[in-house]
Design goal:
A hairpin with a 6-residue loop joins strand 1 and strand 2. The protein is built from one helix and three strands; from the N terminus they run βββα. The protein has a three-stranded antiparallel sheet with strand order 1-2-3, covered by helices on one side. By secondary structure, the protein is α+β, with helices and mostly antiparallel strands.
């Protein structure tokens, strides 16, 4: 436990994105939709998760 991977999945046509955080050993996953991929918004979503 403790090996986390964070990804940003961009939507079709670049209309929104999904921040995903996965614990690699257990596959525990949390995610949050964001409206754009700016650093400020993605950072806020990551902290909220």
């Amino acid at each position: 436990m403790g090996d986390w991977e964070i990804d940003l999945v961009i939507g079709k046509g670049h209309s929104g994105a999904l921040v995903t955080i996965v614990e690699r050993k257990t596959s525990f996953t949390v995610s949050r939709r964001v409206d754009d991929k700016s650093a400020k918004i993605v950072t806020a979503a990551t902290i909220a998760l």
